[in-house]
Amino acid sequence: MTDLLDNLRQALGTAAVETGVDRLSYFANDVYRTGGLPLAAIRPATVEALQHAVRICADAGVAMVPRGGGASYTDGYIRPEGGHVLIDAGALDEIVIDETNAVVTVGAGVTWADLKTALEAKGLRTPFWGPFSGLAATVGGSMSQNTLSHGSTAHGISAQSVIGFDVVLASGELLTTNACDAMRFYGPDMTGLFTGDCGVFGIKARIRLPLLPVLKHAETVSFAFDSFADYHAGVRLAQIAKLDDSHFGLDLALSQGQIARQEGLANRLKIALQVMQKAPDKLKGLATLVRMGLAGENPMRAGAYMCHFIVEGFDAEDARHKAKQLRRVVSAHGREIANTVPTFVRSVPFAPLFNILGPGGERWVPIHGVFAHDKAVAFNAAFHALLAERKADMDRLGVWTGTMFSPVGPSGFLYEIALYWPDARTSYHLTTLDAAYIAGLKDFPANAEAKAYADEVKEAIVALLQQFGAGHFQIGRAYPYQSRLSAPAKSLLGAIKRELDPKGLMNPGVLGL
Ligand SMILES: Cc1cc2nc3c(=O)[nH]c(=O)nc-3n(C[C@H](O)[C@H](O)[C@H](O)COP(=O)(O)OP(=O)(O)OC[C@H]3O[C@@H](n4cnc5c(N)ncnc54)[C@H](O)[C@@H]3O)c2cc1C
Fold it and tell me: Would the pTM of this model clear 0.85, i.e. be above it?
């Protein structure tokens, strides 16, 4: 081990090799769980340095676990047994914009927020342009575990917005997945193989993404629905119509969580300022603010379920026209409410990671599944039956849930359950959130009983999702995968893993590999 650390320090510089217990304890956590302590956390600053470090680890026979922004909660970069080298991609932060060819090449550690800032200065964006966690989440992390949100109705998930990767394999070799710089689909889709792999096939070092112009003109539209069946009926039509850039739904519990967060004059003023700054037409920005002011917090309590749409257009007329069509599509199932929430999200697409704790400071973990539309309503009923069965214990232990929904193309419906329980924070929460923010929240003592019960509820929800045939993004170690593959598919996956990483050193255990 001393040799390994010395060699890594020599290759990367002492500052890029962390061995202090405090930092290693932080790196042993994701948002949800605490794993074993890594031997070291390294931060290579160039692709060549990353290759060198990987060779050193491979020679020592030590497991390597890549980490981007660390904003995930599916045990994807933590290793229960510890003893690994954690590879923090954060210093691979180069952004090269090629306007002529409409391609941007980024280091894997570039955050979606930094990419947005760099591209926006040139009037450009990527089709999918990041998760809500984009202040921390990296392009490499999102591509490695499949991610959706901004731009997803119009352009799909992260994997649909990539041309190619440069991946450092367990041997230290660099594999480029696209045979032609201009496109991804030259022969079998080797780029696709590395999307959603959770780093089990190698470490993404560079990513090439296509570019589009930013459409400055937008309409934001919100609808409330009285039941989940109404919500789903309206939103299914919106998904198929594909008129918005992105939309998301919240039930009342999560919407009220939002209210708890946005309360306070300082926050309101900040939001107002951001709304004004983003408005291409200042008069319209002012009118929106007045409307938001008059509506107050009502839109967040307007129905059992709410959906918030962001519609973009080449000009104001284009955006207005699409919004009008969208209203026509959805209004048979719900009623329009004030557009405060999507207006806020459009002006602050990447908020600080406050949601890693619940509105009252509780612990938080989301669990999701993607269904075919014909399963959504039945799953919702089964999920509520599960909650009813467990109500007495959940109430006793202070465990509660909220739900949110997103489109996955026209045919997939993502149902996400946020699970909360009262428990102590880990060094992940204490390092990620600012001390002043944490000081304003209730401080829960360690609560092993509530934690064990929350774990049990999470397992039960995953089993129920599987029963309904759900698929999952962000598999990590949290969702079953191999059990869903046919025998030939499973054997192909194993053969690819053995070819790319014969000693099984690259993020062992994720995807069940
Ligand atoms: C407040 C909050 C909001 C969120 N909002 C969304 C959302 O809107 N949509 C959504 O889909 N998800 C969301 N997430 C989940 C998560 O943030 C995203 O999925 C995000 O893409 C994770 O990126 P990351 O860089 O933090 O990856 P990490 O958490 O660091 O890693 C994720 C996985 O990818 C692997 N990995 C990381 N970097 C590399 C690399 N360079 N090469 C190979 N493998 C690598 C890791 O080993 C791990 O398995 C949210 C999370 C939080 C906390």
Answer: yes
